[in-house]
Design goal:
The complex is a heterodimer of chains A (111) and B (112). Chain A has 111 residues and is mostly beta strands. Chain A contains no helices and eleven strands. Chain A starts with a strand and ends with a strand. Helix content of chain B is 0%, strand content 53%. In chain B, a hairpin with a 6-residue loop joins strand 4 (31-37) and strand 5. Chain B has 112 residues and is mostly beta strands. The chains are: A mainly beta (111), B mainly beta (112). The interface between A and B is medium-sized, with 23 and 23 residues.
Chain lengths: 111, 112
C-alpha cells in the first residue's frame, strides 16, 4: 500500500504571496491532519479533515485554511505569507482520526 | 504548545548502549504513539500503544503504555548509528478532542 504523499516537496515564496500544498492519504484513510513543524515550536496541529469536513482545528490564524475532496485528498492554503510561515508542513492520514501516518512533508521557505 | 513532557531533550551515547526516553502528562491518554524523524523527512511510526500497561516491541525497540495512562517510555537496545534522529512521543485524549499532541522530541546522537 502506498504511503502518504505530499507535493511539492520544496517551495520558495515571497512575503505576501499565497501557497497551496497537497496531500494524498493512504488508500482507504478518510482522515487527514496537517501540522506545522519549526525548530522553535516543534509540531503544531493545524487542522483535521474527515469526510470532507473540518473536524478539529488548532490555534492558527485564518490565513491558514484547508479542504478535503471526496477522494480524501486534501489541500492546505496559506494566504499573505509571512517570514514566520517558513516551516516543514506535514500531512498525516488515518482511518478515522486514530493512529496517524505522516507524509514526507513540504518544506516552505518564505523570503 | 506541547502538552507532553518528553525527556531527555537530547542524548549522546555510545554505539551498542541501551537508550531510554519517556513522556509524561498530567492528563490521561487513550493512545500513545512513538515516532522517529530523520532530517528533512516526516515522522515514521515506530510503535502504537492502545491499552494501559501494554508492552510492545518492534525489533530492538520496546515501548510501554503506563499503568496510570499518564506516561509512556521507549527503550532502544544495542543502539547503532542509524538510530540517530529525533524521537517523538504523541498521545490522544478526549480532553484534547482526540487530536494528537506531541512531545518536544528527544534528539539521539550515537558515537560510533
Amino acid at each position: 500500500k502506498a504511503g502518504v504523499t505530499q507535493t511539492p516537496r520544496y517551495l520558495i515564496k515571497t512575503r505576501g504571496q499565497q501557497v497551496t500544498l497537497s496531500c494524498s492519504p493512504i488508500s482507504g484513510h478518510r482522515s487527514v491532519s496537517w501540522y506545522q513543524q519549526t525548530p522553535g515550536q516543534g509540531l503544531q496541529f493545524l487542522f483535521e479533515y474527515f469526510s470532507e469536513t473540518q473536524r478539529n482545528k488548532g490555534n492558527f490564524p485564518g490565513r491558514f485554511s484547508g479542504r478535503q475532496f471526496s477522494n480524501s485528498r486534501s489541500e492546505m492554503n496559506v494566504s499573505t505569507l509571512e517570514l514566520g510561515d517558513s516551516a516543514l508542513y506535514l500531512c498525516a492520514s488515518s482511518l478515522d482520526g486514530g493512529t496517524q501516518y505522516f507524509g514526507p512533508g513540504t518544506r516552505l521557505l518564505v523570503l | 504548545g506541547q502538552q507532553l513532557n518528553q525527556s531527555p531533550q537530547s542524548m549522546f551515547i555510545q554505539e551498542g548502549e541501551d537508550v531510554s526516553m519517556n513522556c509524561t502528562s498530567s492528563s490521561i491518554f487513550n493512545t500513545w504513539l512513538w515516532y522517529k524523524q530523520d532530517p528533512g523527512e516526516g515522522p515514521v511510526l515506530l510503535i502504537a500503544l492502545y491499552k494501559a500497561g501494554e508492552l510492545t516491541s518492534n525489533g530492538r525497540l520496546t515501548a510501554q503504555f503506563g499503568i496510570t495512562r499518564k506516561d509512556s517510555f521507549l527503550n532502544i537496545s544495542a543502539s547503532i548509528p542509524s538510530d540517530v534522529g529525533i524521537y517523538f512521543c504523541a498521545g490522544s485524549t478526549m480532553e484534547y478532542g482526540n487530536k494528537l499532541v506531541f512531545g518536544a522530541g528527544t534528539i539521539l546522537r550515537v558515537k560510533s
